[in-house]
Amino acid sequence: MDLWRLRVFCKVVELRSFSRAAAGVRLSQPTVSSHVKDLEDHFGCRLIDRLGRSVAPTPAGELLYRQASDLLARYDGIEAEMAGYQGRVAGRLVIGGSTIPAGHILPGLIGAYRRAYPQVTVCLLVGDTEKVFFDILSGKAELAVVGGRTADRRIVQQPFLTDEMRVVVPASHPWAGRKTVAVADLAKEPFIVRERGSGTRSALEESLAARGAGIEGLNVVAELGSTEAVVQGIKSGIGVSVLSSMAVAADVRAGMLKALALRGVKLTRVFYLAFLRDRSQSPAANAFCTLIAADRPK
What are the HTH lysR-type domain coordinates in residue numbering (predicted)? Predict the structure, then answer.
């Protein structure tokens, strides 16, 4: 057993796929499978269940993943601290991102960061807002950009960017020619909502509550687990939804979707830089925070 095999194994668990893990670590899929098989032989038990196109850790695999994640985080911390001692920014930086930041904000920031600090390897963990907070608390992610708030005082959240949300409909919808829509009209339309724990849903609930309304007053026909799934549901005619302007900008420009304001409701949300209050940041994380501060809109 060695650290590299453990890192490959963790990537398989996180991405739920041998092929995606192989792309993530720049190895062939057979090599990734061989590394996992070596670990299974070493521990004498199955670690990964193959479930068609997806994979999932067995109970033994879950145990190994938790322990390996902690070990790799400590190892990466040693590398970063030693590089910092020598005046270099190097090592591995794990960043968490909820759906919108991970898809539309962080890629550009990570690209700029890598150009400035090419000796740092960046790993982006993607999930809904609640999962990202869990990754911060568990030490898997050193910092994150999320679209929701937490009441957990162990986590510091600094406002980073404000986003406008809009009612999103297909280009063929009767509302497509409008600029705004009333809450009463929205309540009559089949509506697709994000899952509980997502920042998009929380922001919608808060915006409606400020007007004395709520999601329970909408005609919810589907609850989907990602922004992309909601977008595809809108295109497929399942219903309409409220989504980030950034998430649908390309489809709006292409004429496939229309984005409308919700009359009388302030549909805005704030994205936050989040990190553990009592965790000493690595030089790599400090450099990323400095870059974000410089990039933050004034």
Answer: 1-58
